[in-house]
């Protein structure tokens, strides 16, 4: 209440005391006890519920109101006994000196010549356009006399409206001024903006864009609650933002969320984003149980698989049936199969950029599953609230019953087991620095013969430090290490027991910078260096009685580096370009011995000239060249676009395998003086469209890829432990072309997609000498050439808790070489074979069905759960994995090998808390 009001020398002094009063009651009290009258809008005070307790004695009205409005956006102006309130801004009764000599802007008017000691007021014109109605206006802070700062600090938090989790690595940009920032791992951001109107826009993969008109008067806080555009499992949507397929400048990309595999029936009920990828156009594999992906007619070794930036050489378990990455820790994968950004290199076909989830920094969370073969668990553990967290995921197989159920008597009573562990730690150091460390280890052990045990493992660790320099510049420093190795232990009835092994290790340093100069450009640039250390193989006797000789192939070492720059350039609202240039180089390093052969002749024992020795870290041979990455998009309408791209790439590492698909005992070989790096260039052109309010998506994309220096092997080549492997290989050309069609339904009770690919993949080996030619030097189908590929994935939601799914696949049978006759030579019978890959095995088709039963959707419960019941290969078709021939009693007989020849039912219990 007011205790007294008095006038002293024409100045009104007020004594007032109030406890727990709101602003409106205080103003009414002053009006009732004095001649002052306040003028304001009621809604300015209705939204302010703050109560105030202050005691003044003989204070001026200025002092009282300054204290009352201290934590509000309100200012005031006293004119005689009238008090006029304003929101955010100050009411001026005169303009700064020299104000009208400066330029006038329609939106923000401020003097360019006023002294920095004089505060320049903020003026703006109200925008009554339709576009303005769609953008929410937010006022931040309030003007203060004497505040002459050119920029003010806006900070806040960005969260996902679906689950209130933070959204890291989201870009906030003021396009007209070229100012931007990125949220840290905990969703926090900070940006300096000039006073006046700023239009902030949020940009993130899978998150709906949001624009806000922010009028800056002083420092303040603004939080964003954004809608996730990656539909949950029931929707079976592969990509995020519903217009992303139309709007994105980069051609030939796919985004898969790990959750999406829940509703797609897969073998033994295991979620597997790599298997989901094969349901998309342009991505396939050699068949059931095949390790590796063939993307746009490329070999399996032409894909760069990354887990939080570290390479994973064999991302599968159990002969390719399971992925070697815990699905509950894996966030998703982005697949670049068309235009590959300039920051990536070293592979010809595709990049699979897999990321792990960021842990919750506020509360403990977990997720797991119990299935017929494996169990999974993943935990999110806050370490320091709002600052750091730890994620741990583990999975293990506990049964060998799968091998006993396979349609192959040789595998009965055999054993196979595997496990994998992945962990990451995220830490927000401060507003400008954050850290993420990820470690992964997978291990397989199997025995398919009574006398040998096979073992292979992957290990990777990555460290990423993110630093924000200012609103326009940020940097990412990465240190990664990867290792893949295998060994075979043989313990037979004779005295030839042995241990055989192989290993490859690589360490990479990478610096990537982001620069946002203005609203039209988003530039990234940087450099990388990678050191390879390869143990090509060894064999040593097992036990003192073994007669096996100790053999060890000399190690290989090499350095691969690159400089890169890319720019996402928005030329207009309709036309945009994503262009990049990468210069890669490769140096073969000593210590090594180089084998020399007679120039102009095939490499064999007859043309061998001798060796040259090189010391440690000596440069033996170098390769390199520029790589162009360019993609363009033109929007005819907001729902229809056309995209085109061109790439050329180098690959300096090869797999040594004479089998159709990757096997656990395949080895990787570095480019050297005798084996040249692979090269490829790809062209693509496609149209993309959405219709019926983004409920449907349709795309048609064609591509052409030409390759050279593709590695293949001579007939009967010996690969393992061959010190002169260059005498067993040949290098030739490749070509691949195709047309990819995708129709997807995103919403409603029934949703899913239909994909069709027509593609060809062919090779040509036409050397100067007979032993360097295959099929007379003409093009022939590669082992993974499958002209027709159809995939149908559908999900029907009966209710919010019950849904049914199906997955149908059809593929042309892959090529094979058949025996077509017999002949006699020196009283011996021999088989005469067709040209390589002249015939095909039978076509492949398979139907899977599944049912999801979710628990009730109560918010407050110990754990949320669901059951997945599925039948893999419900038709029981014995799809041939391979066809092989055996000579029996003078006859050549053909046999067909199948992996899953019967329906495989499974039931999996999943829970989340």
UniProtKB/TrEMBL annotation:
UniProt feature coiled coil, ranges: none
UniProt subcellular location: Cell outer membrane
Residue ranges of domain TonB-dependent receptor plug in the record: 269-347
A Pfam family that the UniProt record links to this protein: CarbopepD_reg_2
Membrane topology field: Multi-pass membrane protein
GO cellular component: cell outer membrane
Family matches, as InterPro entries: Beta-barrel_TonB_sf, CarboxyPept-like_regulatory, Plug_dom, Plug_dom_sf, TonB-dep_rcpt-like
Top-level taxon in the UniProt lineage: Bacteria
Keywords, ordered alphabetically: Cell outer membrane, Membrane, Receptor, Transmembrane, Transmembrane beta strand, Transport
UniProt family annotation: Belongs to the TonB-dependent receptor family.
Protein's UniProt name: TonB-dependent Receptor Plug Domain
Organism of this sequence: Flagellimonas pacifica
């Amino acid at each position: 209440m007011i205790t007294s009001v008095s006038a002293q020398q024409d100045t009104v002094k007020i004594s007032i005391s109030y406890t727990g009063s709101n602003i409106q009651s205080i103003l009414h009290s002053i009006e009732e006890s004095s001649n002052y009258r306040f003028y304001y809008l009621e809604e300015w005070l209705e939204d302010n519920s703050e109560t105030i307790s202050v005691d003044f004695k003989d204070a001026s009205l200025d002092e009282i109101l300054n204290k009352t409005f201290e934590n509000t956006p309100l200012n005031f102006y006293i004119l005689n006994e009238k008090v006029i309130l304003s929101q955010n801004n100050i009411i001026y009764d005169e303009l700064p000196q020299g104000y009208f000599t400066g330029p006038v802007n329609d939106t923000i008017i401020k003097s360019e010549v006023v002294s920095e000691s004089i505060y320049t007021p903020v003026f703006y014109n109200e925008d009554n356009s339709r576009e303005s109605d769609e953008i929410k206006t937010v006022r931040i802070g309030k003007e203060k006399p004497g505040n002459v700062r050119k920029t003010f600090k806006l900070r806040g938090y960005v969260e996902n409206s679906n689950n209130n989790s933070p959204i890291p690595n989201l870009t906030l940009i003021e396009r007209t001024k070229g100012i931007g920032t990125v949220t840290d791992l905990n969703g926090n951001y900070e940006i300096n903006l000039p006073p006046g109107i700023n239009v902030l826009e949020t940009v993130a993969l899978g998150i709906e864009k949001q624009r806000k008109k922010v009028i800056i008067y002083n420092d303040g806080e603004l939080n964003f609650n954004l809608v996730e555009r990656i539909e949950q499992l029931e929707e079976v949507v592969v990509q995020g933002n519903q217009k992303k397929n139309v709007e994105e400048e980069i051609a030939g990309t796919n985004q898969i969320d790990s959750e999406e595999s829940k509703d797609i029936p897969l073998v033994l009920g295991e979620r597997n984003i790599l298997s989901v990828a094969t349901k998309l156009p342009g991505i396939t594999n050699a068949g059931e149980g095949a390790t590796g992906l063939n993307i746009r007619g490329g070999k399996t070794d032409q894909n760069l698989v990354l887990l939080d930036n570290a390479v994973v050489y064999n991302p599968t378990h159990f002969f390719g049936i399971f992925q070697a990455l815990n699905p509950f820790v894996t966030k998703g994968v982005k697949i670049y199969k068309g235009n590959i950004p300039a920051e990536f290199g070293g592979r010809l076909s595709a990049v699979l950029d897999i990321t792990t989830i960021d842990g919750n920094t506020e509360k403990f969370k977990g997720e797991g599953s119990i299935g017929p073969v494996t169990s999974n668990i993943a935990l999110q553990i806050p370490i320091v609230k709002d600052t750091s967290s730890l994620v741990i995921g583990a999975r293990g197989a506990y049964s060998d019953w799968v091998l006993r159920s396979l349609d192959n008597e040789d595998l009965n009573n055999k054993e196979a087991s595997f496990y994998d562990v992945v962990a990451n730690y995220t830490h927000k150091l401060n507003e400008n620095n954050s850290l993420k460390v990820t470690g992964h280890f997978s291990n397989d052990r199997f025995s398919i013969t009574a006398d040998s045990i096979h073992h292979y493992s992957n290990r990777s660790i990555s460290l990423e430090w993110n630093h924000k320099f200012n609103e326009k510049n940020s940097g990412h420093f990465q240190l990664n290490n990867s290792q893949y190795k295998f060994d075979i232990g043989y313990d037979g009835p004779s005295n030839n027991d042995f241990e055989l092994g192989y290993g490859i290790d690589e360490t990479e340093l990478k610096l990537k910078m982001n620069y946002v100069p203005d609203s039209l450009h988003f530039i990234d640039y940087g450099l990388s260096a990678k050191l390879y250390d390869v143990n090509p193989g060894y064999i040593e006797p097992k036990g003192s009685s073994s007669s096996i000789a100790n053999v060890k192939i000399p190690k290989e070492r090499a350095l691969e580096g690159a400089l890169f720059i890319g720019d996402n350039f928005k030329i207009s609202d309709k036309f945009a370009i994503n262009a990049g240039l990468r210069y890669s180089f490769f140096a073969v390093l000593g210590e090594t011995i180089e084998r020399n052969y007679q120039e102009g002749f095939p490499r064999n024992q007859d043309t061998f000239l001798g060796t040259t020795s090189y010391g440690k870290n000596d440069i033996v041979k170098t390769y390199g060249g520029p790589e162009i990455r360019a993609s363009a998009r033109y929007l005819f309408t907001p729902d229809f676009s056309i995209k085109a791209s061109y790439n050329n790439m180098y690959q300096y590492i090869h797999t040594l395998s004479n089998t159709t698909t990757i096997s656990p005992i395949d080895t990787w070989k570095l480019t050297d003086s005798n084996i040249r790096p692979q090269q490829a260039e790809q062209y693509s052109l496609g149209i993309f469209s959405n219709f019926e309010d983004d409920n449907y998506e349709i795309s048609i994309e064609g591509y052409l890829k030409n390759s050279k220096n593709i590695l293949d092997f001579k007939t009967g080549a010996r690969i393992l432990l061959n010190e002169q492997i260059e005498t067993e290989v040949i290098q030739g050309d490749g070509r691949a072309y195709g047309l990819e069609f995708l129709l997807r339904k995103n919403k409603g009770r029934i949703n899913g997609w239909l994909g069709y690919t027509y593609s060809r993949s062919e090779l040509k080996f036409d050397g100067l000498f007979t032993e360097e030619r295959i099929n007379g030097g003409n093009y022939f189908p590669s082992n993974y050439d499958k002209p027709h590929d159809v995939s149908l994935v559908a999900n029907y939601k009966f209710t919010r808790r019950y849904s049914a799914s199906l997955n149908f696949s059809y593929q042309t049978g892959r090529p094979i070489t058949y025996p077509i006759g017999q002949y006699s030579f020196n009283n011996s019978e021999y088989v005469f074979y067709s040209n390589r890959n002249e015939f095909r095995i039978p076509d492949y088709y398979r139907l899977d069905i599944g049912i999801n039963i979710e628990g009730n959707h109560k918010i407050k419960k110990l754990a949320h759960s669901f059951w997945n019941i599925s039948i893999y290969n419900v038709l029981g078709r014995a799809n041939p994995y391979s066809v092989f021939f055996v000579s029996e009693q003078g006859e050549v007989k053909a046999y067909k090998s199948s992996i899953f020849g019967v329906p495989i039912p499974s039931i999996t219990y999943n829970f989340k808390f």
